[in-house]
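Ex. 9. Protein: Molybdopterin-dependent oxidoreductase.
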Amino acid sequence: MNQPTSRASVTIWASVWIIITLFLRIESGQAQTVLTISGEVTKPLTLQAADLKAMPHTDVTGKDRDGKEHHYSGIPLSDLLKQAGATLGGELRGENLSKFVVIKAVDGYEVLFALPELDPDFATRIILLADSVDGAPLAQGIGPYRVVVPGEKKPARWIREVKSIEVRFAK
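Predicted structure tokens for Molybdopterin-dependent oxidoreductase:
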């Protein structure tokens, strides 16, 4: 005689199936990478890899830690912040000038930018959320997303494995 399957055993098998599926996707490089943009924005975003890939890309050149010039492609941080409804352009005045952006990596590393540093109305350089270097995807441990800040003497804010961007008030 067959015994009815208990709800607990179905839940356990479903959990095992999900874990195995996620493990296989990660091992084959197919893990879904999510980027969140939150905080002092009007439209918090959760973007999948396909969303970011479909956005218009810009190219910048910068010297990495190796001292060599590399060509990076990605989305300007200002474009991402604009899409999320961050205060930029003509609205970036008064108390809004005290806003800053914290970018976090998977490993817990964080870097900070004053919001005007990222706004094309204030700054001449393009700070990029890169997804490729020299025509190839970023290497594991660096990508899938990396902030590139052309012209900085030290690439300490070239944060790797970016997972989130948060806009905050300094007050």
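Check your answer against this statement. Residues 21-31 have pLDDT under 50 and may be disordered.
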